[in-house]
């Protein structure tokens, strides 16, 4: 179990993030069109997994905007924005913001992705949602970078994530 903060108050997550050098675990997440995406849907691509509690918060929205801006210039790289928001909310947000360079995926059904990757928040006001995490994997699915942001209200280290590609 890891500990992060929300507004300076300690909250806990369901485990530890996957280790750098390990293989990214397969997943089943819901796309905006309600189809299911898995790791094989992105085979051969470098991946940036931008994981956060909800697109309807300022910091989460900022991270989606920032990665959308950066993604347009990344070769053979896909940015996946993952939360427990309903796919409809994710789609609405990106449409309203004109964001077209990221792919939203929802873990709303069971939260299995968050549990499998040790990033589900266990207590506090955001219990059941995902903590703010970045996972980067190369085109073979090997994890090259992870970051669990220590204060959920803070943005991730974009430069470190992009440098790991």
Task: Please provide a written account of the structure.
By secondary structure, this protein is an alpha/beta fold. It has four helices and nine strands, in the order βββββαβαβαββα. The strands form three sheets. The chain has a five-stranded mixed sheet with strand order 7-6-5-8-9. β3 (28-30) and β4 (36-38) form a beta hairpin.
Describe the SSE topology.
Elements: E1 3-6, E2 9-12, E3 28-30, E4 36-38, E5 46-51, H1 58-71, E6 77-83, H2 87-97, E7 103-106, H3 112-116, E8 133-137, E9 143-148, H4 158-163
Parallel strand pairs: 5-6, 6-7
Antiparallel strand pairs: 1-2, 3-4, 5-8, 8-9
List its traits:
single chain; 165 residues; alpha/beta; 5-stranded mixed β-sheet; two-stranded antiparallel sheet; 4 helices; 22% helix
* Portion in helices: 10-25%
User: H/E order of the elements?
Assistant: EEEEEHEHEHEEH
Low-pLDDT segments: none
Binned strand content = 25-35%
Helix/strand/pairing category: alpha/beta
Number of strands: 9
Number of helices: 4
Q: Tell me, rounded to a whole number, the average pLDDT.
A: 91
Radius of gyration (CA) equals: 14 Å
Placed side by side, the strands forming the largest sheet appear as 7-6-5-8-9
The description of the largest β-sheet is: 5 strands, mixed
**Cα end-to-end separation:** 27 Å
Globular, elongated, flat, extended or rod-shaped: what is the shape?
A: globular
